[in-house]
Amino acid sequence: MQRTIRTFSADKLAKFKTNLLSWSQQFETAIWLDSNNYKQQYSSFDCVLALEEFTAIKTDYQNAFEKLKEYQTLTKDYIFGYISYDVKNDVELLSSNNFDGLDFADLYFFQPQKLIFIKENSIEFHYLKMVDDEIKNDFETIKKYHKNVDSIKAIVSQSPNTTSENLENDIKIKLRIHKDEYYQKVNKILDHIKKGNIYEANFCQEFYAENSTINPLEVYNDLNKISEAPFAVFFKMEHQYLLSATPERYLRKEGRKIITQPIKGTAKRLISAFDDAQIALDLHRDEKERSENVMIVDLVRNDLSKSAKKGTVKVEELCKVYSFKQVHQLISTVVSEIEEKTHPIDVIKDTFPMGSMTGAPKISAMKIIEDLEETKRGLYSGTVGYFTPNGNFDFNVVIRSILYNEEHKYISYSVGGAITAKSIPEKEYEECLLKAKAMKYVLLNS
């Protein structure tokens, strides 16, 4: 199906972006992907907004990739959505029986009626089934659109599950796994490593709040302001929300080239420029952090080789330090080339879930962390992204994210870290708190 395309420019692009996201709140389904103008080698646009289902697929993990393959093949258009971590159960003989307070579908994609891309100073509207001069009217409305906090709260309060009183409630954040129990579980993983069952496991824990209500857009804006991450997401599907400041790319397809950029290795930013440069250098040299990263690079090289042409899997960057507002990260870039006939969904299936969120060997690590974690991961450590009409795609890793079920009044954010033979439980716990800092701050201060 053909889209009608119109291109505009705006004098005050930052204001237009703010207006655009506020304007999107009137729609039941919305995905906003924002690079925050982070300089990166692989990029197609600065940000994009996808609105309103024209068609959609929502399913549990059973045969999820085959259903997605059929949907993507038949649609031949832009589709946006997510694959939750628990779709691993479609790839391997695994299960997910832990507690789930969020109740997201395992997989969801939709073909948006309205698509708005921002590339530098250009604003492109791509609409299906356009009515009269709908694009021009929407552009003019967005330019003038303004919603202050009280107005947005009024929109949110229209939900049958929300009242104006509980918008002001105190959010009490709880830990699903307390400190001493966390140490015990990490020691169990270390025992598995000593026995040779695994080399590394990404162990995650949940922070949550019950009977709590937030303003999702306000929380997202505050989180994004703190982090300015290159793969930020605001996702709304009726009463379910993802507010993400993730810095990590999972998988990208450009023609026949496949790119993955796993993150392993974290250090906090420091105020002093001298000290900050030193801690970044220390991270680059840190033997433990580099070994975490290299193990995952080996894993993703193996995953990519399943669909790659022989001899095309290459490491473009190994353990390069990338700096963000809150943290420094060690990121590696691994690429491959696929045959023209290879289906894009097969490339994702061959590499899912991403190695940075599982461990090595992958299947053994997934079984162990499933047994030790207390919460079903769901969308956390899954992926959000899009497919283009010609079968290219780009997907992130859902970390540094807040998940919210407005109907259940349940708020959740999870953090994790790679446990290796050199891990010290106390230091792993401190790293979790560092990663959780921005989410906790915005929830308690928005």
| Helix fraction bin | 25-40%
Describe the biggest sheet?
A: 20 strands, antiparallel
Termini Cα gap = 42 Å
Unreliable parts: 148-168
The beta-strand count equals: 20
- Overall average pLDDT: 93
Note the overall shape: globular
Task: Calculate Rg over CA atoms.
Answer: 21 Å
Domains counted in the coordinates: how many?
Answer: 1
Describe the secondary-structure layout.
Elements: E1 4-9, H1 13-23, E2 29-34, E3 47-59, H2 64-75, E4 79-83, H3 88-91, E5 107-119, E6 122-127, H4 134-144, H5 149-156, E7 174-175, H6 179-194, E8 200-209, H7 216-227, E9 232-237, E10 240-244, E11 249-254, E12 257-261, E13 263-268, H8 273-285, H9 287-305, E14 314-323, E15 327-337, H10 344-351, E16 359-360, H11 362-372, E17 383-387, E18 393-396, E19 401-405, E20 410-419, H12 425-445
Antiparallel strand pairs: 1-6, 2-3, 2-9, 3-5, 4-5, 4-17, 5-6, 7-8, 8-16, 8-20, 9-10, 10-19, 11-12, 11-18, 12-15, 13-15, 14-15, 17-18, 19-20
Helix pairs in contact: 2-10, 7-12
